[in-house]
C-alpha cells in the first residue's frame, strides 16, 4: 500500500512538478493550494507525511498554522517544511511548531526524496515486534523505541520523530560523545548543522518544561553531544 503524502504548496508549477516526481517514486500525493483546503482535509483524514510551504497565497505564515494543526492531531506524523525562506528565524520557528525537518527549495530532488525516505523508515520502526533492546533506561530517563515514548522522572515528554531518534542516538551511549555525523547516521537522517542545533535546543527545552534543572544533554564544543552520566 503506497504512502500518502500531503503537499501544501500554492505555486501551481512547483506543485505539479513535485506531484509528478513523488508519484514516480510510488507515493500517493494529495495536493493543496492553501491553508483552508489542507486543514479541512486533515480534519477528516491524516496523510502519512506532510510537506508544507510556509507562505500560502495571501497568508505569509499560513504553513505554520497548518503544521500546528497537524501536530495537534498527531504527535508522530512526519512533517517537512519546504520553503524558499532560508533564514535561521524561520527554521527555528518551524522546528518549534513541531516540524521534523526544514528544507529550502534550492536542494536537489534526490536530497528531498532521501529526507522523505528517512522519515518513513523511522516511523516504520513502530511496527516491529518489541524486544528488550527497544528500551533505554539511564538515570531518570526511560525511552521505548517501539512506542516512541519518552519519560523523565516519570513524566512523559512529547517529542517529534526526528527529536526522538536524535535523543535515542545520544542516550543509548550514555557518556559517549556523538558527533553530528554520527547523530545523522544513527537516527537515519540528513540535515545541516543549524537544523541539528535547533533540534537539540528544542529537546532540552521540552525536558526543562518538566524539570527546570535538566542538563543531561551536553554540548561538547567542536565534537558533538553526549548524554551526561549522573
Automatic annotation (TrEMBL):
<feature type="DNA-binding region" description="OmpR/PhoB-type">
    <location>
        <begin position="133"/>
        <end position="229"/>
    </location>
</feature>
<dbReference type="GO" id="GO:0000976">
    <property type="term" value="F:transcription cis-regulatory region binding"/>
</dbReference>
<dbReference type="InterPro" id="IPR016032">
    <property type="entry name" value="Sig_transdc_resp-reg_C-effctor"/>
</dbReference>
<dbReference type="InterPro" id="IPR022305">
    <property type="entry name" value="Response_regulator"/>
</dbReference>
<protein>
    <submittedName>
        <fullName>Transcriptional regulatory protein ChvI</fullName>
    </submittedName>
</protein>
<dbReference type="InterPro" id="IPR001867">
    <property type="entry name" value="OmpR/PhoB-type_DNA-bd"/>
</dbReference>
<keyword id="KW-0238">DNA-binding</keyword>
<keyword id="KW-0804">Transcription</keyword>
<dbReference type="GO" id="GO:0032993">
    <property type="term" value="C:protein-DNA complex"/>
</dbReference>
<dbReference type="Pfam" id="PF00486">
    <property type="entry name" value="Trans_reg_C"/>
</dbReference>
<keyword id="KW-0597">Phosphoprotein</keyword>
<dbReference type="GO" id="GO:0005829">
    <property type="term" value="C:cytosol"/>
</dbReference>
<feature type="modified residue" description="4-aspartylphosphate">
    <location>
        <position position="53"/>
    </location>
</feature>
<dbReference type="InterPro" id="IPR001789">
    <property type="entry name" value="Sig_transdc_resp-reg_receiver"/>
</dbReference>
<dbReference type="InterPro" id="IPR036388">
    <property type="entry name" value="WH-like_DNA-bd_sf"/>
</dbReference>
<dbReference type="Pfam" id="PF00072">
    <property type="entry name" value="Response_reg"/>
</dbReference>
<feature type="domain" description="OmpR/PhoB-type">
    <location>
        <begin position="133"/>
        <end position="229"/>
    </location>
</feature>
<dbReference type="GO" id="GO:0006355">
    <property type="term" value="P:regulation of DNA-templated transcription"/>
</dbReference>
<keyword id="KW-0805">Transcription regulation</keyword>
<feature type="domain" description="Response regulatory">
    <location>
        <begin position="4"/>
        <end position="120"/>
    </location>
</feature>
<dbReference type="InterPro" id="IPR011006">
    <property type="entry name" value="CheY-like_superfamily"/>
</dbReference>
<dbReference type="InterPro" id="IPR039420">
    <property type="entry name" value="WalR-like"/>
</dbReference>
<keyword id="KW-0902">Two-component regulatory system</keyword>
<dbReference type="GO" id="GO:0000156">
    <property type="term" value="F:phosphorelay response regulator activity"/>
</dbReference>
Amino acid at each position: 500500500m503506497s504512502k500518502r503524502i500531503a503537499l501544501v504548496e500554492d505555486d501551481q508549477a512547483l506543485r505539479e512538478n513535485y506531484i509528478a516526481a513523488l508519484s514516480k517514486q510510488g507515493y500517493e500525493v494529495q495536493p493543496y493550494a492553501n491553508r483552508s483546503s489542507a486543514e479541512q482535509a486533515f480534519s477528516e483524514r491524516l496523510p502519512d507525511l506532510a510537506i508544507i510551504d510556509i507562505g500560502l497565497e495571501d497568508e505569509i505564515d499560513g504553513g505554520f498554522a497548518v503544521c500546528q494543526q497537524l501536530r495537534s492531531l498527531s504527535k508522530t506524523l512526519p512533517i517537512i517544511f519546504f520553503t524558499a525562506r532560508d533564514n535561521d528565524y524561520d527554521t527555528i520557528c518551524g522546528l518549534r511548531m513541531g516540524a521534523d525537518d526544514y528544507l529550502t527549495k534550492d536542494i536537489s530532488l534526490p536530497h528531498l526524496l532521501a529526507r522523505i525516505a528517512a522519515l518513513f523508515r523511522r516511523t516504520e520502526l513502530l511496527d516491529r515486534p518489541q524486544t528488550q533492546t527497544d528500551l533505554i533506561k539511564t538515570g531518570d530517563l526511560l525511552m521505548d523505541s517501539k512506542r516512541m515514548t519518552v519519560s523523565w522522572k516519570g513524566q512523559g515528554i512529547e517529542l517529534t520523530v526526528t527529536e526522538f531518534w536524535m535523543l535515542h542516538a545520544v542516550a543509548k551511549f550514555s557518556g559517549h560523545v556523538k558527533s553530528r555525523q554520527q547523530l545523522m547516521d544513527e537516527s537515519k537522517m540528513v540535515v545541516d548543522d543549524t537544523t541539528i542545533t535547533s533540534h537539540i535546543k528544542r529537546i532540552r527545552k521540552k525536558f526543562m518544561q518538566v524539570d527546570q534543572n535538566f542538563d543531561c544533554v551536553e554540548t561538547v564544543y567542536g565534537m558533538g553531544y553526549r548524554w551526561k552520566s549522573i
